[in-house]
Predict the 3D structure of the following.
Amino acid sequence: MGAAIRAAKSGLRRGEVPIGAVVVYGDEVISRGYNRRAEKQLASAHAEMMAIDAACRKFGSWRLPEGCELYVTLEPCPMCMGAALNARVDKLYFGAYEQKGRSMTAALAEANLLNHKTEVTGGVSERECSALLTGFFAALREKQKAEKAERKNSGNNCADGPETLD
Ligand SMILES: [Zn+2]
């Protein structure tokens, strides 16, 4: 999970919502991904998709070899859980739990849609994974508040005096 957290931080440095994922095979991290939705402006640019796609490219196969594990800092959305099942990921470990009802991880894992079972374990390094997200959104709210205050102030300046705006 440490590698997934580091991947999430790579996204954070680029201004993305910090979610990271890695695929592990035989105790080795074989691919990494972080959320790149803002950069790519693609709804599918989730950390898990990046990591799973990179792993498939590495193995030259949509079906990952037996024993592949996916680590992700946040409980996956249904799209990413679907991709994990499609790629035949054997085990999924996630950190923070998604808000109630927004993920269908357990239901999808149980559904056995593809005649494949992915074993799911949640809450791995949960505190650290959650802190990444809560820290990001708290900073975002602070930034928005500051920008709002600044707009208000610059508005007052316009009304008050002859300050020029560059
Ligand atoms: Zn997703």
About this structure: The longest helix spans residues 126-160. DSSP finds six helices and five strands in the chain. The first strand starts at residue 20 and ends at 25. The beta strands are 20-25, 28-34, 69-74, 91-96, 119-121.
